[in-house]
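yo

u said u wanted the structure for the complex thing, so here. seqs first:
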Amino acid sequence: MKRRAFAVALGLSLATVGVTACSSGASAGGSNTIHVLVYGDASNKVEKQIVETFNKTSKVKVVLDTIPGADYQSKLNTIINTPQAPDIFFNWGGGSIQPYVKADLLLPLDDMIAADPGLKGNFLSSVFNTAVIDGKSYGIPMRGTQPVLLFNNKKVLADAGLSVPKTWDELLNAVTVLKGKGVTPFALGGGDQWPTLMWYEYVFDRVAGPELFQKALSGDKTAWESPESKKALGMLKQLVDAGAFGSNFDSVKFTDGGSPALLAKGKAAFELMGSWAYATQQDANPDFAKNDLGYSNFPAVADGKGDPADVVGNTNNFYSVLKKTKHPKEAAEFLKLMYSDEFVKAQLAIGNLPTTTNTEQFLSTAASPEYSKYQYDLVKAAPSFQLSWDQAYPPAATTPIHTAVQQFFSGKLDVDGFIKAMQALPAS
Amino acid sequence: MSALSSASASGRRLRAGRRSGVGVTRPGLVWAVPATVFFLLFAILPLVLVAVLSFTSWDGVSAPTFNGLDNWTKLLHDPVMTQSIWLTLVLTVAGVVVQTPVSILLGVWAAGHQRNRAVLSAIFFVPLLLSATAISVVWRAILDPNFGIPSEMTWLFGDGNLMGSQSGAIAVLTFVGMWQWTPMHALLYQGGARAIPQVLYQAAAIDGAGKVRQFLHITLPQLRNTMITSMILMLVGGLTTFDTVLILTQGGPGTDTTNSAYYMYQQAFKSFDFGSGSAIALVLVVVATLISLAVVRLSGYDKMRSTSEGL
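structre next:
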């Protein structure tokens, strides 16, 4: 008798919990709001401002939800196919939204673009194309572009009698000279793994052109064992073996301020890093950023197929719209603000470089006009702007890519091992 | 006859008494409902769901699809998985070996009545109050090869590439784990040592035993059960070490410190392969259960005898 009562009580309480769980799920997603989910960081200032501007005139109100950076992708992936999903969300284009396109969750923006061609025409095309998948547009650029640049410490270079390397041979020469002076040629935050990847992205581009990676990404795995691929890997290996990064780079991180400090304090002469490194230095070492922080494009490789004007990095961040949004019209109106003068000025003021065609006329209002102009000209003139490999592939490939680039630098993988690891990546 | 009847009457009374006694001292099963429901909901149900997920392919976005034993065969041939189990065991054993002697010594010392004992104990227990995240971030900075202690002590650390080699990274994880967890185990031993009857020491002193002999022949044997408790906690903690790995090494260099718990997280929440992640989680549950059972059996913890005064 007692046992049955126990079982009934158990069943009842389970049922209650189940019911409450369901009802709480259904209540999300208000009727007259658009939820916009963004990566939480310093740039949210602009997003808040744009949302306020939009809400002044619109009946349907935009609600901005920020998720602290490191957890953004996990959180998004967890909620995107649930009633808690946002209407519009921040992403990196490319592989980062591919699983959602495949699951038929995203709204192709081509109809919006047909209604307002400015939603495409007002953005630099090399950037806009990052969020084009299978010929359909899925994203509108909504922050700044982040090309990878070769930063340098001008004082260290001057002391060593060196100038900024324009070719690979000059770069190798700089390594020898700097080593002789007891300076680590290149600061590298190998502990984060993605800074190591940047070296592959540039060397592969310079040696083989952007086509090799595009071929590999589209599923042709033979690209990795091509002679160009092997040549690029050989050059990287040569660089590591020459001590270009010192010996303890795997214990150094960019994210905890380790590698930027090496550059700022003159213990290293160069650092290959995304354009955000400028803001990092301004924040951590303002005097260095003002007086001695130099920057240049990655050097050319003799006989290489890649154009020395090519850049790699994060083309921009994008807003994508979910198919099930109740307010596609208002969403389109909101997206139009991403090429407004107000947006461009606000982004420039906090040091971001928007990728709209009207950015150029406001460059003088930027936080550091000279630096912004340099980047803008670089991106505009670039024949190819390759999205970071770990963003171009779907998320499942990120860890294997990071592991492989780290292990090749540390010597745990040889050329063949690296090629095998890249060929084993989940196809897109 | 009268004797018999009185015996049976007393027997009846006894039985009746016992029955009423049961009613008073043993509460009904209904009392166990809240705890049981919570246990079922938050331990058993997720475990079953994870078991089901381990036979599916699920990226967390589209609906899970059953793929039979795919995850399991993949796991069986995955060198990272094999390595992760080995690493988990190495980290666990290293943790027990390093932490146990230090915490016994500290705990027994803290159980005494020396001068400044309370103040020093309070300082020793500070790491217990810090979150694992804070501890990891702090040690990461202290061990920075260019700006931390290694750059000042090159005679000991060389180029300071601690996180760049497998042995270095394991040593760091073990050391930080010791720094973090020793206080808690010292606390256990302090309690255990305090509970040892003073008469044992007095008797030993009369017999001429010095401090060291007293420690070896009275304190250590009397702490046997505390040791088992502490070791089981260390084992379970070691098997599920995650936060320090996440912040200090991120499983690196490469996959050199990717233990099973971190590999599970990586598969499920970085690569969004919840099927493989679930399979790893199940392996971890099974391994941890087996090890705990073995320890309980081997140590005689299941038939633990009282160590009250006079033994």
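Residues 1-23 of chain B have pLDDT under 50 and may be disordered. The beta strands of chain B are 56-57, 65-66.
cya
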